[in-house]
Design goal:
GO terms for molecular function: metal ion binding; peroxidase activity. The chain has 269 residues and is an all-alpha fold. The protein contains 11 helices and 2 strands, in the order αααααβααβαααα. The protein has a two-stranded antiparallel sheet. The structure holds protoporphyrin IX containing FE and 2-acetamido-2-deoxy-beta-D-glucopyranose (2 copies). One 2-acetamido-2-deoxy-beta-D-glucopyranose binds at residues 53, 89.
Length: 269
C-alpha cells in the first residue's frame, strides 16, 4: 500500500518536473474544435477544459508556452478567425464553421456538410490512412504529400480554393514540425525535404487521443518555431505532390502542353 502511494507520487513528481499539466478527456459538456492541437491544449488544461469563451491571446499564449510556436503568428491566425466571426471570444466548436479556417479535404476530419455542425471528431479511417501512407516509421514530407492527394481525391469533384490550399499546406507543416523527432532544422539552413521525421506512433497517439505523447519522447521544440521554419516543409510537400500526381516539376506547368509535346518529340529525334 505504502509503496503504491510512493509510486503514485513519483509519477506525479516526474509529471510535474516535465512541466506538462495532466491530460483529461473532454467531458460531455466540453467543446472541442476541428484542430487537433487546440483540442490537445484544452485536454491538458492550457486552454479552458470546457472549450468555451477563448480569446486570441489565450490561443497564442498556450501555443507559445507548450509547443513553442511564434505567438504573434498564432495570434494572427486566431484574430483572422475572430474578426471573420465578429467575436472577441469563441468556443472551440465555432472553429468548425466552414469557409473561414475550416475546409474540406482535411487530414483527419471528414468533410463537413452542415455549416452548423458541431461534429468535430477525427476520422479513424483518415488517421489510419495517414499512417499507412508512409512505408517507414516516420511521417514525412513525401508521405504527407501522398495523404494530401488522397484526401483531395475523397472530396473530389469539390476542390480547395487557393486560400484553403495554403491553409492545408500550413497544417501539414504544423503536423510534421510539432511532432518532429529531435530539433526542428532552421528554415534558414535550407534543409532538404528528407530532413523531417515525425515518428508514426507519436503522430497516431497525438491525433487519436489528442494528448501530448510524452512517453513516446515528445518534447516541445527548444527553439521558438517561426514562419520561416515552415518554408522548406511546405515547399517540399508542394513539390512532392506534383511529382506524385505525375505533373512533373513546376516550371513545366508554365509551358503550354502543346509546346511540351513538341519538345518531347524533338528530343526523341
Ligand atoms: C501550435 C499551434 C497549432 C498547431 C500545431 C495546429 C495544428 C493543426 C493541424 C495539424 C491541423 C490539420 C488537421 C486536419 O487536417 O485534419 C489543424 C487544423 C485546424 N486548425 Fe490548427 N493548429 C494550431 C493552432 C491553431 C489556431 C491558433 C487556430 C485558430 C484559432 C487553429 C484552427 C484550426 C482549424 C479551424 C483547423 C481545421 C482545418 C480543417 O478544416 O481541416 N489552429 N491545426
Ligand atoms: C468570457 O470571458 C470574458 C473575459 O474573461 C468575460 O468578460 C466574459 O464575461 C466571458 N463570457 C462568458 C459568457 O463567460
Ligand atoms: C458585429 O458585432 C457588432 C457588435 O456586437 C454588431 O453591431 C455588428 O452588427 C456585427 N456585425 C456582423 C457582420 O455580424
Amino acid at each position: 500500500m505504502a509503496s503504491k502511494i510512493a509510486i503514485a507520487s513519483l509519477i506525479a513528481l516526474s509529471a510535474a518536473s516535465e512541466g506538462l499539466r495532466p491530460w483529461e478527456a473532454p467531458g460531455p459538456d466540453d467543446l472541442r474544435s476541428p484542430c487537433p492541437m487546440l483540442n490537445t491544449l484544452a485536454n491538458h488544461g492550457y486552454l479552458p477544459h470546457n472549450g468555451r469563451n477563448i480569446s486570441a491571446q489565450q490561443f497564442a499564449d498556450a501555443a507559445l508556452e507548450v509547443v513553442n510556436i511564434d505567438g504573434m503568428a498564432i495570434k494572427q491566425v486566431a484574430n483572422y478567425f475572430l474578426r471573420a466571426a465578429n467575436q472577441s471570444f469563441i468556443d472551440l466548436t465555432d472553429l468548425n464553421r466552414p469557409g473561414i479556417l475550416q475546409h474540406i479535404a482535411s487530414l483527419t476530419r471528414d468533410d463537413v456538410k452542415d455549416p452548423d455542425s458541431v461534429d468535430v471528431s477525427a476520422s479513424q479511417d483518415r488517421i489510419h490512412h495517414l499512417i499507412q501512407d508512409s512505408d517507414t516509421d516516420c511521417i514525412t514530407v513525401a508521405s504527407l504529400a501522398k495523404t494530401r492527394l488522397h484526401v483531395e481525391d475523397l472530396s473530389s469533384p469539390q476542390e480547395l480554393t487557393v486560400k484553403e490550399q495554403s491553409l492545408a499546406y500550413v497544417e501539414a507543416g504544423l503536423l510534421l514540425l510539432v511532432m518532429n523527432d529531435g530539433p526542428v532544422p532552421s528554415g534558414w539552413s535550407f534543409p532538404p525535404a528528407t530532413a523531417y521525421c515525425a515518428p508514426k506512433k507519436r503522430v497516431e497517439t497525438w491525433l487519436t487521443e489528442e494528448r501530448f505523447p510524452e512517453e513516446l519522447g515528445w518534447k516541445k521544440s527548444e527553439r521558438t518555431l517561426g514562419l520561416v521554419d515552415f518554408v522548406p516543409v511546405i515547399k517540399g510537400i508542394f513539390e512532392e505532390k506534383r511529382l506524385q500526381a505525375g505533373k512533373g516539376p513546376l516550371w513545366k506547368s508554365f509551358i503550354p502542353s502543346f509546346l511540351q509535346q513538341e519538345t518531347d518529340t524533338n528530343s526523341e529525334l
